[in-house]
Design brief:
Order of helices and strands: EHEEEHHEEEH
Radius of gyration: 16 Å
Helix content: 10-25%
Strand content: 25-35%
Number of helices: 4
Shape: globular
Number of strands: 7
């Protein structure tokens, strides 16, 4: 496994705690004319750090970003498997998903109306915790406004464990499908 999906660090943490099972995405500048797609059935979650993300999320007062590494390394602690995806072009359905993610309404709406095709892509994912952090050197190719990056291969000795049990995962899936 060497494909990583760049996501805000605080969202990665929520996914890793089992508080969230969906990713909503419109796409970055580097996605091209075709726009964003969940291209890979499995991927690692590469946390991105920028201070403004805390103001764009519904989080507890006092929540802070994880401290960036100072050794020139990146750290991945979670993997994900896409169970299903859907493009959502009905704003009321996007709003109904609010209990299932951390993003502020204004941030999701900004993505929804970002271009002529008003919609967002949703992926219902199954998150797995890595048995130990996967640490590798940072490089310029991991930067920029792109969702997918190729990183070094996950070492074979690192195993994965589901964050949510099957019953909780299926109940959450059922609730989300019911809204759509």
């Amino acid at each position: 496994m060497n494909i990583a999906f760049k996501e805000w660090a605080l969202v990665c943490e929520a996914l890793g705690r089992g508080e969230q099972s969906i990713i909503l995405r419109k796409g970055g500048i580097a996605e091209g004319r075709a726009g964003f797609r969940f291209l890979h059935p499995e991927f690692l979650l590469l946390p991105t750090l920028f201070h403004e993300q805390a103001a764009k999320l519904r989080i507890s007062a006092g929540t802070t970003l994880p401290a960036p590494r100072t050794d020139g390394q990146l750290e991945v602690r979670f993997a994900a498997r896409v169970e299903w995806t859907r493009d959502i072009a009905d704003w009321s359905k996007v709003q109904a998903l609010a209990p299932f993610h951390l993003w502020q309404d204004f941030e999701i709406e900004k993505r929804f109306v970002q271009d002529a095709k008003q919609m967002v892509s949703l992926a219902f994912i199954r998150v797995q915790r890595l048995s130990e952090p996967f640490v590798f050197p940072d490089a310029p190719r991991y930067g920029g406004c792109r969702s997918w990056v190729e990183i070094p291969e996950l070492p074979r000795h690192i195993t994965r464990c589901e964050v949510l049990d099957e019953t909780t995962n299926r109940a959450r899936e059922s609730a989300i499908r019911g809204l759509l």
